[in-house]
Amino acid sequence: MSAECIKPYRKNYGETFEHSIPENGSVLEFSPRGARPEAMPVVLWNRTNHGTSNTGRGRLLRGGKAWVAERVTQADQGNYTVKDDDGNVLSRSTLSVRGEQRQSKICFFVFFFTTWIPSMLIIMFCPLFIYIFLTYSYVLYFPFILLALVGYSFNITRFTKESLNLPLFLPVHHAHLIFTPSRISDESSLGPFDPKPPRGPIQLLREGQIMDHDLGYRVVICKCTFPPVCNEVPEHPCISPVSNHVFERRLIEKYIAENGTDPMNGQPLSEEQLVDIKVTHPIRPKAPSATSIPAILKSLQDEWDAVMLHSFTLRQQLQTTRQELSHALYQHDAACRVIARLNKEVTAAREALATLKPQAGLVAPQAVPASQPAAAGAGGEPMEISEQVGMTPEIIQKLQDKATILTTERKKRGKTVPEELVRAEDLSKYRQVASHAGLHSASVPGILSLDVCPSDTNKVLTGGADKNVVVFDKNEEQIVATLKGHAKKVTSVIYHPSQSVVFSASPDATIRVWSVTGGNCVQVVRAHEASVTGLSLHATGDYLLSSSEDQYWAFSDIQTGRVLTKVTDESAGCALTCAQFHPDGLIFGTGTADSQIKIWDLKERTNVANFPGHSGPVTSIAFSENGYYLATGAQDSSVKLWDLRKLKNFKTITLDNNYEVKSLVFDQSGTYLAVGGSDIRVYICKQWSEVLNFTDHTGLVTGVAFGENAKFLTSAGMDRSLRFYSL
């Protein structure tokens, strides 16, 4: 067909374009303006195959005699060709669209009169703004320059990927987006049923609506399309499956609650249908007021102040870090010096030991002083003695004489309270004054037993789960001795009232006697065949009482290290859990695993009284200094007070549910009773009212003790800490 047969059409932007269809017409093809000659045209309408007529450019009207495209744009410019069934050209026309660039001209004039003229006037009258103008002009003019580019093409860097998400800025609401391949792909590798690659332009968007239906080209418009209620970037965007528009969730939920429909097409919509879009936190644009010159100057000043403040903070942190590093290096140097000195001392000790070993057979034996326990055996090892000697008349007489003296002294004291004793109102004001957590190993945490030296209450004795016994000086706040030798944890400790000797018991079935000054074990008494559960020192200071899970209690001489007697209640057949001497020393009490408290006569070695009443294993017992009261605690969350004269329970202190009683102790005057377990509580005797309650320990309290005249209180627990309380 010659050029004279081509019918030209000229339409303005937004008008309607009609193309007539002859009766024998079968196909309407469209070739966009500027397309390559080898590019395949786009099929707008096909009489025999309606599946290809899905581009959405127009529709058939007037009974199928005309093809109409409404609101044409420059994307509709090109050649329109009608062919018959044999492919012969029946008619051809060309369309030109005018008037799309008016917005760019308007934007240019707006840009000129709203930015350049005011800027020139400001620069003429105020040279101070020249620097700001030159520095920030691109920020002020960028929106207008962007508007002036509407209608032009953009060059975008190519990406070689299997798939690509390419965000494009659409400057106007009714935008057009056309994709034209830069080159024709090789079709030799495609199969007969594979989709052919495009040869010509593909219109993806038409007036803001998605036109492309090919799965190979996906278009999503991600913007706030809810202008009646939202003019800002959505913080929580969600998409409506009804209209495929993106909304701010807060606003669309409010709209649905009021109307129940989609705001774009009026179709029914519910909150459950909304689909959240996972996006990064949006950056809100600055307010229009922030674009003024004073606002920019203020922003710069604020940023400068923030930078200076941050720099000052960094300098402070740097100085602090330097000081900490210097201190750490100093400590490291000191530790290295101490380690070197200790290594030197260990080497010297080993050399001295190697020198003395050949002469060991020539050393004459030395007598053991009567006031000290028996010394270690030959070879430097402690003596292990378990032979039962028996209660001789001399021993029984010694016990009786001591009991007579103690009874006489108690009668002299009468019922008067020592003047030096801390009053109850002062005791109630006690607070924690010191805490020490480094006495025992942190790898096996926990202090299981506690005692205070009666003659020097500044000396505190602890036994830990790390198998060590530690002597601590309260005033000096330092460890006096660390005694190692037990094979298992240390559950009971006692400090001798007049000698520099301590005693310890352990589940390893041994009782050890330690010299504090020598820092070594001088005796190992094996009085039991199972775990030793209780330990008590007789008032004479010469004998030890011990209880065990083997159901026996034993009475041993610490001077000779021999077991004098060993007794069990065969009728009970139950393990003993604790033991404690009466202040007079002629009777003592034991607790059992079946909740019984048994009172024994030491001279006759018989069970003279039983105190039932607890409902769990007895964990601790304590005699009052006046000799009348016995306090017992068990795993039934209660403390019971017993009258030894009437042999009955006269008071039961019910504690909180699941309260674990681990330690009971009276002060030296018998005025106060301390309870250690889930916390620390102090009661005043006779009234049996609570005057103190400490909850500073983070673990179970396993030991509690009074200082002289109750001037301080000390405790130890499973949190590996030793704490002191006073005014």
From TrEMBL:
<dbReference type="InterPro" id="IPR036322">
    <property type="entry name" value="WD40_repeat_dom_sf"/>
</dbReference>
<feature type="transmembrane region" description="Helical">
    <location>
        <begin position="106"/>
        <end position="132"/>
    </location>
</feature>
<dbReference type="Pfam" id="PF04564">
    <property type="entry name" value="U-box"/>
</dbReference>
<dbReference type="Pfam" id="PF08606">
    <property type="entry name" value="Prp19"/>
</dbReference>
<dbReference type="InterPro" id="IPR020472">
    <property type="entry name" value="WD40_PAC1"/>
</dbReference>
<keyword id="KW-0508">mRNA splicing</keyword>
<protein>
    <recommendedName>
        <fullName>Pre-mRNA-processing factor 19</fullName>
        <ecNumber>2.3.2.27</ecNumber>
    </recommendedName>
</protein>
<dbReference type="InterPro" id="IPR001680">
    <property type="entry name" value="WD40_rpt"/>
</dbReference>
<dbReference type="InterPro" id="IPR013083">
    <property type="entry name" value="Znf_RING/FYVE/PHD"/>
</dbReference>
<keyword id="KW-0833">Ubl conjugation pathway</keyword>
<dbReference type="InterPro" id="IPR055340">
    <property type="entry name" value="RING-Ubox_PRP19"/>
</dbReference>
<keyword id="KW-0808">Transferase</keyword>
<dbReference type="InterPro" id="IPR038959">
    <property type="entry name" value="Prp19"/>
</dbReference>
<comment type="subunit">
    <text>Homotetramer.</text>
</comment>
<keyword id="KW-0747">Spliceosome</keyword>
<dbReference type="InterPro" id="IPR003613">
    <property type="entry name" value="Ubox_domain"/>
</dbReference>
<dbReference type="InterPro" id="IPR013915">
    <property type="entry name" value="Prp19_cc"/>
</dbReference>
<comment type="function">
    <text>Ubiquitin-protein ligase which is mainly involved pre-mRNA splicing and DNA repair. Required for pre-mRNA splicing as component of the spliceosome.</text>
</comment>
<dbReference type="InterPro" id="IPR019775">
    <property type="entry name" value="WD40_repeat_CS"/>
</dbReference>
<dbReference type="InterPro" id="IPR015943">
    <property type="entry name" value="WD40/YVTN_repeat-like_dom_sf"/>
</dbReference>
<keyword id="KW-0507">mRNA processing</keyword>
<keyword id="KW-0227">DNA damage</keyword>
<keyword id="KW-0234">DNA repair</keyword>
<keyword id="KW-0812">Transmembrane</keyword>
<comment type="pathway">
    <text>Protein modification; protein ubiquitination.</text>
</comment>
<keyword id="KW-0677">Repeat</keyword>
<feature type="repeat" description="WD">
    <location>
        <begin position="576"/>
        <end position="610"/>
    </location>
</feature>
<feature type="transmembrane region" description="Helical">
    <location>
        <begin position="138"/>
        <end position="156"/>
    </location>
</feature>
<feature type="repeat" description="WD">
    <location>
        <begin position="694"/>
        <end position="727"/>
    </location>
</feature>
<feature type="domain" description="U-box">
    <location>
        <begin position="220"/>
        <end position="295"/>
    </location>
</feature>
<keyword id="KW-0472">Membrane</keyword>
<keyword id="KW-1133">Transmembrane helix</keyword>
<dbReference type="Pfam" id="PF24814">
    <property type="entry name" value="WD40_Prp19"/>
</dbReference>
<comment type="similarity">
    <text>Belongs to the WD repeat PRP19 family.</text>
</comment>
<keyword id="KW-0539">Nucleus</keyword>
<feature type="repeat" description="WD">
    <location>
        <begin position="611"/>
        <end position="652"/>
    </location>
</feature>
<keyword id="KW-0853">WD repeat</keyword>
<feature type="repeat" description="WD">
    <location>
        <begin position="483"/>
        <end position="524"/>
    </location>
</feature>
